[in-house]
Amino acid sequence: MDSKPSRIMPSFELTEADLPQIKDWDVGNKYTVTMQVEQISKSKGGMYDFGMEGESNKKISARFRIVSVSAEKKEFKERYADNMSKKEDEK
User: Fold this and answer.
1) Contact status, residue 39 vs residue 68, Cβ threshold 8 Å
2) Is 36 helix (H, G, I), strand (E, B) or coil?
3) Contact 69, 15 (CB under 8 A)
4) What does the alpha-carbon distance between residue 36 and residue 27 come to, in Å, rounded to a whole number?
5) Positive or negative, the Cα torsion across 23, 65, 6, 46?
6) Residues 68, 71, 76, 80: is their CA dihedral positive or negative?
7) Phi, psi dihedrals of residue 9, rounded to the nearest 5°
């Protein structure tokens, strides 16, 4: 077993003003969200690496400002899957 701890991915917060679909979403489910971001900084090491030794201080990190955010439309995804299924049946 690897003794090295696994990396925790970053998290972010949105309000219904940012993405109205979240009103209908359930905690624990997974959703596809598309964001356009603007890079606002880049540095060697992360903001939480203070006092840490080793490789983590040598990795590049970047901060971003979210410009826009949208959710993948479930209906489109389901329609696409149905169309692909019909095309397979026609073969």
Assistant:
1) no
2) strand
3) no
4) 24
5) negative
6) positive
7) -70, 150
CA dihedral (34, 8, 64, 20) in degrees, to 10, reads 40
Q: In the numeric block, which tokens belong to residue 63?
A: 């901060």
Whole-angstrom Cα distance, residue 90 to residue 50? 60
Q: At residue 69, what is the residue type?
A: V
CB 63 within 8 A of CB 35: no
Q: Which two tokens stand for residue 67?
A: 């410009």
Residue given tokens 């095309």 in the structure block = 87
What backbone torsions phi and psi does residue 32 show, to the nearest 5 degrees?
Answer: -100, 120
Per-residue pLDDT of 29-57, as tens digits, reads: 999 999 999 999 999 876 565 555 555 55
Q: What is the pTM of this model?
A: 0.59
Tokens of 31: 């959703």
